Amino acid sequence: MQEELSAPERRKGNMGSWALIVAVIALVVAAFGYVGGWLAPHRLTPKRIVDQLQDNAGTFAGYRRNHAKGVCVVGYFQSNGQAQAYSDAQVFAPGRTPLVGRFAIPGGNPYAPDSSVPIRSMALRFAQANGQQWRTGMNSMPVFPVSTPQAFYDQLKAQQPDPATGKPDPAKVAAFFAAHPETAAFRAWAKTAKPSASFATENYWSLDAFVFTNSAGKRQAVRWRMVPEATDTGSDAGSGGNPDYLASDLAQRLSQGPLHWHLLVTLAQPGDPTHDATKEWPADRQTIDAGTLVLEHTEPQESGPCRDINYDPLVLPDGIEASDDPLLPARSAAYADSYLRRTSEEAHLPGAAVAHPKPEAKP
Question: pTM (2 decimals)?
């Protein structure tokens, strides 16, 4: 047997153990401090991005900090099996995968009129039979304005309303765009973009690139978009000055039957940028029709199944991976911050957790 240590030796050993524990704790705290921005106050963090979204639009308890105004939809994806050669995600096997989705408009004000912005968004959560999920958020524009989280934050800062006017300072916005020539493609699109009359007639782009992997381990960079079967205006829901015409139009259309989109997957070729959402890929790239999105009914977001879903673009099933696009981890982290804020607020709202009374009108 090993001889017992003397009292001084035991004390020395204990002190060494405590020193090691304290050192480990210090390293962990330092790591969390760095990630949270506590030890680097000028470092861009998810909190700073979400705080800036609030500074721009105001804070509305219980709502998302961006794309606050929306509506839930329920349906399924009918795969035709054409994407299986590139991804072994179960959603691409022939058959049906149920989903819960959400249409929305950009901005943090859930009471903004639908005509205030020309962009619409579609978010989807596919629930595979094997328990894995695929979550994706798409927008009705072919390119994103900027390519990095820092540039996105700087854009938000430049567009923050001036307290004196309630509108962004044109000089600050112009200076931002002058310093960011990569915004040219988006600005060219925005010049001709007009608020559409329906969620149902929009194309929705993934913007960010992802990577498909098949059963043999082969990797293929991709982007995707949802292309609607509906092309007509089809509804008078937007007439009469209705500020919520998109939800009305959607309900009216779905009362007549399901709505359909085709999931088109574009395959990148070597050299196509996967890290830059401001750049489109050449139009001659091979595109696969992977199946049909079918939406069957809509529900209010305050009580519908999409309310408590964080449409984190990095919740991916086997067979789909993130690319090297730096916007993806930034989106994921900011979505998480926004989700924690709004769900915490919902629990403390007066009345029911789902009650979101409109603010009193101001003169």
Answer: 0.85
